[in-house]
């Protein structure tokens, strides 16, 4: 085998250093980049030169990107690292904790926060020198340590109280969660050696092949049937932060093959109903939620729960509610529309579902009481009423979904209504 020629670095050692650091940032952002690709990129830049930004972009793109879902993250890291003269200020703005009531100057695009976190990851790491220059070097001091006690704190921390760094870590924890479900037993049978029910058809069919002699009894067991998961998520202004985290969780559930769900259908609603099921099938979570947000034009708007449930019952119920579907309703229930319409539609939804579970972040308050008209109209028609404001509450969903006896839960809901 012929030996490779020795690696000759470009004349500008700063450019070589920056390409290496750029590759390290891409790797932290999720791209599978090893040392070999870094060497290939340096050689490619040496051969192509560094004269045109567009050519430089596509040379590095050819060396570092081999999957469609990585293109957007690469583009964001490249823009922040190489092309934006104020990239450090933009990254720091995205990493700082969000302040309620203050609107951001520019909303981060899909993959942009991951790019910023990858570039700023490290302890006392000096900012790389930029080709376009800068006034002075910036020293970044970030504690990236992650301990078990911190994970425990994040599990119970309210989503709305998390900083940007904590939200990013919470999203990574949500991506590892699953929502398993037990199969629904049916009357249809399937061949099974360990089955306890005699399969007369297969037994007699086998006997006919043996001249009518009955040599072995064929057994069968109930054929399992997996239900659909239907999610109705409120994206109004009061629910926006919780909805984003829940949708991250649903993306992980929809893309987890071993959870057992037949299909996962997701809908968002504020002032209108939007089907975002196809967007959750996208492998990259940032691209999936960016596409879902672009289609749901009523994000952070008002709330018309009754009208949206009416649209779902009319247009989608028969399509997605078959096979004993489990419905997750994520909303705070603060609806100012007609309470009679809301009660009628939630009752119809309840009758169509195998189980209707309501996640309400208002339950995080110890003194919560169902005093709002919308909450009082919905509460009698749900099987389970749970909080949905933290990772721990989402982890407890599996037990609520698999539960078959709702007598105790119903008694608790009725007592809550009486006290309210």
Q: What does this 3D model show about the protein?
A:
- The structure is a single chain.
- The protein has 3 domains: 13-94 and 110-126; 186-225, no CATH class; 229-419, von Willebrand factor, type A domain (Rossmann fold, 3-Layer(aba) Sandwich), CATH 3.40.50.410.
- It has 19 helices and 11 strands.
- It has helices spanning 13-28, 35-48, 53-64, 71-83, 87-95, 112-119, 148-156, 164-175, 200-209, 240-254, 277-280, 285-295, 305-315, 317-320, 339-352, 373-378, 391-395, 397-402, 407-419; strands at residues 125-126, 139-140, 184-191, 197-198, 219-225, 229-234, 264-269, 273-275, 326-330, 355-359, 384-386.
- The strands form 3 sheets. It has a 6-stranded mixed β-sheet. It has a 3-stranded antiparallel β-sheet with strand order 3-5-4.
- Strand 6, helix 10 (240-254) and strand 7 (264-269) form a beta-alpha-beta unit.
- Helix 4 packs across helix 5.
